[in-house]
Amino acid sequence: MSIENDFTLIRDYDVNYCLQVFNLQPVAFVKGRGCYLYDTEGNKYLDMIGGIAVNCLGYNHPKLTSAISSQAKNLIHACNYYYIPQKSELAYRLCRASFADKVFFCNSGAEANEAAIKLARSYFYYKDLKKYEIITADMSFHGRTMGTISATGQEKFSRPFEPVVPGFVHVPYNDIDAMIKAVNPHTAAIMLELIQGESGVHPADLEYIQAVKKLCVEKGILLIFDEVQTGIGRTGKMFCYQNYGVAPDIMTLAKGLGGGVPIGAMLTTNAIAVGMKPGDHGSTFGGNPLACAAGNAVMEAFEDEGIIDNVKEVSDELFEKLGKLRSKYNCIRSVRGKGLLIGIEFDDTITAQGMKDQLFSMGILVSAIGKSTIRLAPPLIINKSQAGQFVKAMDKILKNTAGPKSVLGRLKDALPSKKQIKDAAPSIGSAKIDKLDQAGLTGGQDIDVIDDNE
Ligand SMILES: Cc1ncc(COP(=O)(O)O)c(C=O)c1O
Predict the structure, then answer these.
(1) In 3D, which of 47, 222, 66, 252 has the Cα closest to residue 145?
(2) pLDDT (tens digit, 9 = 90+) per residue, 239-253?
(3) Could you identify the atom of ligand 1 that is nearest to the CA of residue 262?
(4) pTM, full prediction
(5) Cβ of residue 108 lying under 6 Å from some atom of ligand 1
């Protein structure tokens, strides 16, 4: 039995058999190429969210695809009783590219953060010091396990699961005085995202991060950077901490590291790594040959293909165009972020959900964070013309937006309905519907979206 191309069946099976913890958009993707995804009906979408900052090499990248398939033919899993060549190699590559000397591999961002939290505590345990508290920031996000929802500075993620794990203290982000006040003799670590991705793409101030580092050094506190979302080229450096000139003691990675294959990693220095002994921590799947082969292919692609340069170039142009769009439309309150992790916040005349839905109907994928912000985290191989298509779509939406009516309502008037698009398109199967074409967003040359005469 295969339900792969029948969307109605896919949705029915999901509703009936999957735990309903996600708010799903009405689409199932069956194929990806470059920066584009294709749904069960053959519709093509420009992916501006990249599997939430995961698919850094886009879809069907030759190096990644061939590394995974050849590894699958040789060996998928052997277990951590034995040496694993792909794991040794990936650990070497990550250490060579960062401040770190040692790596622990796991399967997700939350697990990487669990490992970081455990290491921060066990490091002081073996020193016979009662230092176990971890300070994190309000509005942070560190994962969904009990430990990481306790670390996360947003009660909405932990309330139904209380009592939370003790030993976490939350302070306002970018507020060094609050951080200094929170430190006490039991403080083991400060754990921060350099850009708070899940709460609306809020970057840390340079002076703040430098002052936090100084505080950590002075007080003998470990500094943990959660780079699950910002790591692996996302912000125009291999790791976001390199933008700040401040190295942590511990860093966590996941998302982009496997280019779509689940993998997480916790990196640290030799000095801190002594805080974990054989048997203190582990993972059945962590560091398996398949995931590490994917990680090696991703790292190799970064070494060979100028991806970081591409991030910087596309990001510069995207920020410039979004800045112009902001000058043109008052409803854009701010454009934030770094590299290709970008948040666009609207005033209360535009809902993030409405904007996301309108972009979706034009064949563009973004995510909505809260009521007012959309997030972009496209594949890092995106080109300027594709990024321009996104800005042109926003321009088109905002141009048609007048008065305080919701963006969804306003755009329903202005854009063709799904049915109109479908009726106008060739039948499914014989030719694909290209929503970007339908919306007038594709074309040979790059687009100057800010032309008022458009
Ligand atoms: C900064 C950060 N940390 C941790 C996580 C959790 O990662 P995972 O969902 O892979 O467990 C996320 C996920 O979005 C994240 O953005």
Answers:
(1) 252
(2) 999 999 999 999 999
(3) 10
(4) 0.91
(5) yes
